[in-house]
Amino acid sequence: MADRVIAGRPIVAGEVEGDALVTHDAFSFWGGFDFRTGRIIDQRHPLVGVRASGCILAVPFSKGSSTTTAVLLEAVRAGTAPAAIVTTGVDTFFALAAIVADTMYGRTFPVIALSAPDFATLRTGVRLRIDRDGTIHPVDRVC
Amino acid sequence: MLTLTTRDSAVLAGDHGPAAQLAMSIVVRMAEIYGAESLMDVTQAHIDSTLYLGDATLEFAERLASLGARVAVPTSLNVSGVDECGWREWAVSPEWAAKAARQMLAYEQMGAIPTWTCAPYQTHLRPVFGQQIAWGESNAIAFANSVIGARTERYPDLLDICCAITGRVPAVGLHLTEHRAGELLLRLIDVPERLQQDDQFFAVLGHLVGKLAGDLIPVVDGIVVRPAEDQLKAFSAAVASSGRVALFHLVGVTPEAPTLDEAFRGRAPQRSLEITMADLRAARDELTTADGRELDMVILGSPHFSLAEFAQLAPLVRGRRAHARVKFLITSSRLMREQADERGVLAPILEFGARITLDTCILTSPMLPPDIRTLMTNSAKYAYYAPSLLNTRVTFGSMADCVASAVEGRVVRDDSAWRTE
Questions:
Q1: What is the model's pLDDT at position B421?
Q2: Least CB-CB distance to A31: which of B49, B153, B389?
Q3: Pairwise CB contact (< 8 Å): B53 & A67
Q4: Where is B307: in which H helix or E strand?
Q5: Has residue B369 been placed in a domain?
Q6: What is the ipTM of this complex?
Q7: Which residue of A12, A133, B163, B389 has the smallest Cβ count within 10 Å?
C-alpha cells in the first residue's frame, strides 16, 4: 500500500507512527502475546515469535479469551504494547483496552477500523503514520 | 447517538460515588463505540477480570475497590490467579500468590460472590432463558448465550466489572433478538451417529467450528444425538478458543434453534459450508502437538470439572492407580469438589492418585513445575492454549484415554471411532 493514503475510522483516536505488522488471522492476546517481552507466543498463529511492541498491528479482529483486554492493559503499563491496532470492523476488545489504558495510566494507543478492501492493501514492514482523524499514510524511512 | 437516562447521567456525574462514576464512564465510552442508542439493565454479571496477570490487573481491581465500588446485580467471579489453599504444593511463587490473593480480595470487597469458577452456569447463579446478563469468560459467554439462551454480549475483562457496578450495558448486539440469528450454515456430511456419541466429538467439532466461523454466528445442522450438558460445555470452550464465537446454534439441540429455519430466524445464511469426516479428523489432529510417547501429566477440567464429570470419572478409575511417573490433576471449583465428595465420587478419584486444584487452572496460575513437558487432556481449551502459554506439548484424547494413559504411564488412545469406515 506504500503509495496511497487510507481513510480509516478512528475507534479510539490518536497519532502514532510505526512499522506495519500485518496478519489476516484473528488473534487473542491472552495465550498469544507475552506482555513481558512484547513477543507473539501463539504457536498456532503465523506471527509466532515476532516482536509486536511499537508496531502498528493490523489484525482483522480479536478471537478467543475475554482476557485479551487485560493482557493489552498490562502491555501498555509495561511499555510493550503495539503502537496502534488496525482492524476490519469495530473490535470492542481492542477498543476497551485502549480506553482503560487511558483511564488508568493516561497512556493509550489508537484503534482504527478499515474496510476489508483497504485492510487487504496493508503490507508488513511498511512504515505508517496514523492521524487523529484515522487517516493512515505511508511515510518514507529516515535513515 | 447515545441518549442517557437521568439516572445514567447522574451516575456519570458522580452523584453515586466515584467508583460508579468511573465504571459508568467506561460503559458510556464503550456504548459510543458499540454505536448504542441507549443503555439497558442487566440482572446478573460474571467477572473474568479476576484473573491476576500482573500489576495492571491488580491496580485496576484495587482502584475500583478503594473507591468503594459495589456490584449492583448478583455477580459471580471467574477463576483467579491462585488456588488460595493449595498453591504451596505447586511452583507458584509467594509473591504471585500474594498479589493474586489481593486481586481476589478486591473483587470480594465489591460484593461479588466468590464462586471462583469458569463454569458459573453450573452453580446456583445459572441464568435462565432470555435473561439479560453481562458475562465475561469466553466459554461462559458462549454457553450462556447458546446453551441456555440467556443474553450477553461478548464482554471483555475490565468491562464486565463496570457493567456489574452500574447494572447497565450498551443496548446492542446479542442482547437484542434481531442480532441473534444464525449467519453461517455448517452442515455435517456423513458424520455417523457412532462418532457423534464419542466422548471427544463435541470438543473437536467446537474447535473446527470456531476456526470456520470467523466473525459470523454459526449454525450446525446434522447433529443426531442428544449431547450431555458437559459436552455442550466442551463445545463452548473449544469454539471460543479457536474462534471468537459468542453465540452458536445447534439445530435440534440448543434452545433458539429447534429447526434450521428458526436458527436463522427465517433469513438465508450469509454463507454455507460442509463439514466432513476428513475435516473432523484434521481438527482432532490439530489438538495434539506431542509425539505420543512420553507423558508427564494428565489434566482435566477446563472449563472446571462438574459434578457429572466427577461421577463419570469415578467408575473409570475405581480400583486403579495412576502410574508413579504421571501426575493426574483435575481443576475444579470449591462447590463441585464439595458436591462430588458428598456424592461419594471424589474418594475413588483421590485413591487413584488424582490431585484437585480449586479456584484457578493451569493456564491462569503459574503452578506447573518446569519438568512438566508433555500433557494429555480431554479439554480442547487446555489443548488449544497449553502449547503457547505453558510451552508444553499436548495430546488430546477422551476421558477414558486419559485414565488409560495415566495408568500405563504413556499415551494410549482408542481411535476406533475416528478411523475411516
A1: 57
A2: B389
A3: yes
A4: helix B307-317
A5: yes
A6: 0.95
A7: A133
- Find which of B12, B24, B26, B33 to mutate to test the A interface (most A CBs within 10 Å of its CB): B33
CB-closest option in A12, A66, A71 to B48: A66
**Model confidence band, residue A1 (pLDDT cutoffs 50, 70, 90):** very low
Q: Give the position of cell 495415566.
A: B406
Query: A53 CB near a chain B CB, below 8 Å?
Result: no
A70/B56 Cβ within 8 A: yes
B158, B252: one domain: no
* Domains of chain A from N-terminus onward: 6-138 (3.50.30.10)
Residue B384 contacts A, CB cutoff 8 Å: yes
Instruction: Strands of B195-264 (E only): list them.
Output: 218-221, 249-250
- In this complex, do B56 and A104 lie within 8 Å of one another by their Cβ atoms? yes
State the residue for C-alpha cell 473507591.
B67
What does the alpha-carbon distance between residue B204 and residue B242 come to, in Å, rounded to a whole number?
A: 11
Q: Mark which of B143, B160, B177 sits at the end of a domain.
A: B177
Please state whether the predicted TM-score (pTM) of the whole model is above 0.90: yes
Confidence category of residue B365, pLDDT binned at 50, 70, 90: very high
Tell whether A92 lies on the interface with B, counting CB pairs under 8 A: yes
